[in-house]
Here is the input.
Amino acid sequence: DVKVTQSSRYLVKRTGEKVFLECVQDMDHENMFWYRQDPGLGLRLIYFSYDVKMKEKGDIPEGYSVSREKKERFSLILESASTNQTSMYLCASSPWIRDRVSEPQHFGDGTRLSIL
Amino acid sequence: AQKVTQAQTEISVVEKEDVTLDCVYETRDTTYYLFWYKQPPSGELVFLIRRNSFDEQNEISGRYSWNFQKSTSSFNFTITASQVVDSAVYFCALSRRGSTLGRLYFGRGTQLTVWP
Here is the structure.
């Protein structure tokens, strides 16, 4: 069974801090994704990665960066946290598309981040 | 551009009622995949179903059924005889068949509350 683990369920940080959110998957998936979820806005894609050290911007990358040094781990970094980054953050993984069949993404439990 | 619309923000029903969650999508692709995910209060998104655009057969799984109609670009989800445990946020999503990443384009979600 696929397991996507996010390091914290709840996190409280202060404005201006550098914040790291960690995500680890155990299924050898090539693709990994970071989303943020806000009421009324659904899931919005921040960054994604399709291989080690490879990353692509999603729809709302401003204020964030990512790191993928190992295949199983994908980190989201808030360079200088601001109150408008208070949100639920969800990590997901999926295998590369093969034979043009789109595989479902598997999600972690989410990290509820509060920036004070 | 890909777009998924879930017009119902919130739905409340009483246990044992049937409920249908609407999903309308936009894409210029001729082949694509559609998904439904469930997000219970615990936070993790749980994959429910994937549908290939070539396959317009309706699907039934226990109390869940899905009605895919390409002519109206809709992929609606019906829960029969709803239960309190069905209370969750439900997301509809689309991915492009040609994409190696399988990036998902999500609707904003429908919050379903089932009252005892």
